[in-house]
Amino acid sequence: MATSSTSMHSSYASDNARGASSVAPACPGCGSRTVRFVGRIPDAVEFAGHSVEVPLSGGGLWSCRGCELMFRYPTLPKSMLDHLYNQGSEEAWVTPSEQRVDWALARAALAKWGKSGSILDIGCYDGRFLLSLSAGWKRHGVELNHAAAARAATAGISIVGTDFASLATFEGRFDAVTAFDVIEHVENPAKLLGECATVLRPGGLLIIATGNARSLPWRLLRSRNMYCICPEHLAFVSPQWCANIAPSVGLEIVSVLPYRRVERPLFARAFDVIKSAVYSLSPSAIAFLRRRGVGRLSHPVKVDYPPLWPSARDHFLAVFRKTHA
Ligand SMILES: [Zn+2]
Predict the structure, then answer these.
(1) Ligand 1 center to residue 169 CA distance, Å?
(2) 122 CA to middle of ligand 1, Å?
(3) Cβ-based neighbours of 179, under 8 Å, separated by 6 or more
(4) Tally of CB atoms within 10 A around 268
(5) Average pLDDT over residues 50-61
(6) Does 241 have pLDDT greater than 90?
(7) Is it the case that residue 204 has pLDDT exceeding 50?
């Protein structure tokens, strides 16, 4: 056990050294060169819930001292990412509507703002969130997946583009824009926020929901947390990052609401924390137990991955208001 633990620690350390030897990148959000290497991200064996034949290089996790963005570098080439997205399961992103804590929080924020208006959902899939709103809203969507966009259109959603980049030339203005689990998939989240602000009327709301790169799993597991290991996740934001970036794109923060995606009883949440705490101290201890078939600690994908932590309060919903034209 002692030998196994030592070898795992030395491989963890040499992994980190390999990532750190890469040339330090500029921050993809603010362009600053004052970036810090956090650690090597383990290679991934799944992309968007779909197994891949050859492990995908994780790259390194970096943190920007300028804007507080955390980001993966190097990333997989765009052509490979596009190919992998096309291979992925169409249903990989779908969670039953009644389990979407972020949608419930967003509906509450929108209801506080008003009962009607025009709304754009970026990454609307087949329009499920938009269709859950009250009838007073004129619903629009942006969606890359053609089959899902076609279903949304059939359900009465006006599809205005396939990609958020197309918003730069869009002439309409909306009272609200939403983007759930989208910002972590783009290389430059500041650009996404700016494009969203461009299509908002002054006083309109932007609502984003994503992982929180300052939450407990990140502080404990750093570059080895599962959110980071997902190879389709490129950039990682936090409420602090939102506060830093908002004024530069004409937005102000109305509220920040941390949430858990899965509610579990207190004892289950405590067990989740203990497993991850043990892993943070000794990944080999968890791997050792898994190899011996300790069921509750098993991971469906890889023996040396961090334990799943479904009850972590590691997401947040940020509500912004557009401050000027
Ligand atoms: Zn930055």
Answers:
(1) 26
(2) 23
(3) 121, 122, 123, 164, 192, 196, 206, 207, 208, 209
(4) 12
(5) 90
(6) yes
(7) yes
pTM of the model: 0.89
Q: How many residues does the chain have?
A: 325
Separation of CA 109 and ligand 1 centre (Å): 29
Q: Which residues pair with 178 in a beta bridge?
A: 121, 207
Where in the chain are the domains? Answer: 97-212+231-262+316-322
Per-residue pLDDT at 88: 65
Residue 21 has pLDDT above 60, yes or no: no
Ligand 1 centre to CA of 36 (Å) is: 11
How far, in Å, from the CA of 31 to the mean position of ligand 1? Answer: 6
Q: What is the pLDDT of residues 271-313, one digit of tens each?
A: 999 999 999 999 888 888 888 877 665 655 677 888 889 899 9
Cβ-proximal residues to 204 (8 Å cutoff; 6+ apart), any chain:
173, 174, 175, 176, 177, 321, 322
197 alpha carbon to ligand 1 midpoint, in Å? Answer: 19
Q: Is the model's pLDDT at 36 over the cut of 80?
A: yes
Q: How far is the CA of 167 from the centre of ligand 1 (A)?
A: 23
Correct CATH for 97-212+231-262+316-322 of 3.40.50.150, 3.40.50.80, 3.50.50.60, 1.10.540.10: 3.40.50.150
Mean pLDDT for the stretch of residues 177-205:
95
CA of 143 to the centre of ligand 1 (A): 27
